[in-house]
Amino acid sequence: MKLVYFSWVRERIGVPEEERDLPDSIHIVADLIEWLIGHGENYAYAFENAQTVRVAIDKKHVPHDAPIGNAREIAFFPPMTGG
Amino acid sequence: MKLVYFSWVRERIGVPEEERDLPDSIHIVADLIEWLIGHGENYAYAFENAQTVRVAIDKKHVPHDAPIGNAREIAFFPPMTGG
Amino acid sequence: MARIIVQSAAFDIAAEITRMADEAGTDCGAIVTFTGLCRSEKGALTALELEHYPGMAEEEIGRIAKIAEDRWPLDAVTIIHRYGKITPGEGIVLVLVASAHRAAAFEAAEFMMDYLKTHAPFWKKEHRTDGQEGSWVEAHNRDDVALGRWQD
Amino acid sequence: MARIIVQSAAFDIAAEITRMADEAGTDCGAIVTFTGLCRSEKGALTALELEHYPGMAEEEIGRIAKIAEDRWPLDAVTIIHRYGKITPGEGIVLVLVASAHRAAAFEAAEFMMDYLKTHAPFWKKEHRTDGQEGSWVEAHNRDDVALGRWQD
Fold first, then answer.
1. How far does D146 lie from chain C, in Å, by closest CA?
2. C10, D13, D50, D94: which one has the fewest Cβ atoms less than 10 Å from its Cβ?
3. What is the largest CA-CA distance in chain B?
């Protein structure tokens, strides 16, 4: 699974993207965030206010309770400031 | 007094502008329109629906009951279609 | 102070935007432009001929710009209105508004256009492709309705 | 079909207006443009650096344009959004809308800007004149409020 990070989520985690093998216990986005937080302080810092972090599965916005299914790419980022 | 006409008011009256000496009996715009209508069919045609004709005194919009006072120039024209 | 121009020549939108960006400086966040174009009315028209009231046209447009500048926080306003013969696809009117805030820029531009439609002393005569005498474009009731939105 | 471009290079507003006028043809009565500019924040900033999510940025902008095209009678839509380092006074985003009707053009342009602010995957980092580490521009609650206006 390809995970990508943007803006201060990227800065806190320390890498723009990574490949991860996800355990079968991960069903929804919130499970993945919980699992990542267990991988180090950088992840804990990035997700310290997890509810503010936005998520996209295969480049489409999804809520935190969205099923991961056969996603190829999951992105985490702060609220957008386009325009 | 300088009278100026635009658009179909001008076409119906037949001249773009003219000088007129107004009698003392003319106090407000409506008096002037009434007086002009007496000057020929072209004026009667231009003011056949007098309430639709807009008026400006010295280049400022005024209602038909506006006093003429010391006006130098009075303009008559259809509703504007600017923009 | 708004930049108000009444002219028969075509206008240069790019030059006006550049000029406005320079004038508004580096704390202007938004520039909204409106360009009103001559329509062919599905091929029925060869041109519109705009008659205007010289002097009053500039005054009225300036008055409209002043109302907008008093109502919204604007950094710059430009209005250019053409007169004379204008062919389909050509610009008739150009409104530019610069502001730190996008909502103010949008609202002020739309407000000024609604006012210009009903208050600027211009009249449009149609020139028809079929050679018949064209008629004067009538004022639309919908333009008065549009204007009504801005009354408090 | 909207013209959607995500690029680091500056955009050419005049060329885009000309292109749109040509595309929209001679029955388009109105072109509204919105240009969002980088602000210096009273001299505090040397630049904004825009990070974006390649692929998703184009998709989201395309989706926003599609919603507008379904909602208003539009003749043409162009959205250009830049990424990378942008200095005060430079354009960040350009939205153009052509329509036979001015109200539709204004509303669609404002709608798309409100959506871009809150839905386009871009993030802005400040570069400060005082040399200190700049912060990421935070999303504004007022932008969510602005967006709320468009819900039925």
1. 9
2. C10
3. 39
Q: Is residue B45 one of the residues assigned to a domain? A: yes
Q: What SS3 state is found at D28?
A: coil
CA distance B31 to chain C (A): 23
Contact A79 D117 (CB under 8 A): no
Superfamily of domain D3-148: Molybdopterin biosynthesis MoaE subunit (3.90.1170.40)
Alpha carbon distance C34, D106 (integer Å): 8
- For residue B60, being part of any structural domain is answered with yes
Q: Which residues contact D15 (CB under 8 A, 6 or more apart)?
A: none
Q: List the helix and strand counts (H, then E) for chain C.
A: 4, 7
Q: What tens digit of pLDDT does each residue of D24-63 get?
A: 888 888 999 999 999 999 999 999 999 999 999 999 999 9
Tally of structural domains, chain A: 1
> Where do the domains of chain D lie?
3-148
Using an 8 Å CB-CB cutoff, list chain D residues near C42: 27
Q: Identify whether A82 is part of a domain.
A: no
Mutation site for B-interface testing, chosen from C5, C38, C52, C53 by largest number of B Cβ within 10 Å: C53
What's residue C140's pLDDT? Answer: 84
Taking contacts as CB-CB distances below 8 angstroms, the residues of chain C near D38 are 26
Asked whether residue B83 is domain-assigned, the answer is: no
**H or E element at residue C100:** none
The CA distance from D104 to B4, in Å, is 37
Could you tell me the CATH number of the domain that includes residue A69?
A: 3.10.20.30
pTM above 0.90, yes or no: yes
Q: Which subunits count as partners of chain D given 3+ CB pairs below 8 Å?
A: A, C
What does the pLDDT profile of chain C (152 residues) look like in tens digits? 899 999 999 999 889 988 998 888 888 889 999 999 999 999 999 999 999 999 999 999 999 999 999 999 999 999 999 999 999 999 999 999 999 999 999 999 999 999 999 999 999 999 999 999 999 999 988 888 888 888 76
Q: Which two tokens stand for residue C9?
A: 């020549």
Q: Do residue C56 and residue B7 have CB atoms under 8 angstroms apart?
A: no
Q: Which residues of D touch A (CB under 8 A)?
A: 36, 51, 53, 55-57, 59-60, 81, 92-93, 113, 116-125, 136-139
pLDDT of residue D152: 64
DSSP D123-150: EEEEEETT-SPP-BPPPPHHHHHHHHTT
Which of D61, D64, D122 would you mutate first to test chain A, the one with the most A CBs within 10 A?
D122
Q: Which residues of D touch C110 (CB under 8 A)?
A: 102-103, 106
Nearest CB to D33: which of C27, C29, C32? C32
**What ipTM score was computed for the predicted complex, to two decimals?**
0.91
